Amino acid sequence: MLIASMFLFIGCQSPPTWYDRELGKRDNYWGYRVAVEVSDPGCRIEVNNEHVATITNTVGEIILWGYSDGRFRQNQLVHILAYPVKHGQYQQSKHFYNRDRDREPIPHRIYFDLNLEPTKPTEKMDIKVR
Q: Which of 9, 16, 39, 72 gives the lowest tally of CB atoms within 10 Å of its CB?
């Protein structure tokens, strides 16, 4: 009895509470619905250069895939882009890079403010590498 209960406890990985069971599994990865908020409706969203959504209101969702512990896959770069809607706005992006043990959790919510200007470095540094 003890061995059977240990097997169930160790062997079964249950998905996190925000995993969407309707999405099921794809290539042994769990599907997660991530809320996306944008400053202006009509924003186009891409994940890894693939169009995944157009946010018609200021709130929408995208689907990201990861492990059952709610983290991104190993050695995966996830690049999320939001395109401007009006003149004078700027493209915004979020990056998640996951190495072997340093995997980032899949966010529950992502916010893009299309009115933020790109940052410029405040200081110039000369680095000489030998």
A: 9
